[in-house]
Amino acid sequence: MQQAKYVRLYSDENGESHFEDLEVPLPLVDFAPPAAPLNIAQFLPATQTVWVGAPVGWAGDAPHPSPLQQIFCTMQGEYEITASDGTMRAFPVGSVLLLEDTTGKGHSTRFTNQGDALIFAVVLADAD
Asked: Going from the N-terminus, what domains does the chain have, and what CATH number goes with each?
């Protein structure tokens, strides 16, 4: 079965942020008949989508939590995130990051490309 892979960035009970690699199974679904079935799975409820553009030289080096629970899909450029536990991950074009570290020490961000970066963000619904 096909899988969708993504990285989760979350805060633990002590406020430290950590990365976690996750996968979502995509079963075959008769999604758009009469076209052949596609591999589809519901993911997370969302409230809006936004474009995030980061110009060359944008500085996110100061540790900060994510302002919202959101999913970042990298469309252009590349960036590195360092979790408060010291782990660093790179997010090139095509990567998907679930940002859930809305409390605690947060993370720092550094863009590594020579041009502007563009991220398609999906803001998640509250998990109440």
From this structure: 2-30+45-124 (2.60.120.10)
Q: What is the pLDDT tens value at each position of the chain, 128 positions in all? A: 899 999 999 999 999 999 999 999 999 999 999 999 999 999 999 999 999 999 888 888 999 999 999 999 999 999 999 999 999 999 999 999 999 999 999 999 999 888 899 999 999 998 65
Dist. CA 7–CA 96, nearest whole Å: 6
How far, in Å, CA of 17 to CA of 1, rounded?
31
Residue 5 near residue 94 (C-beta atoms within 8 A)? no
Residue with tokens 């979350």, as numbered in its chain: 10
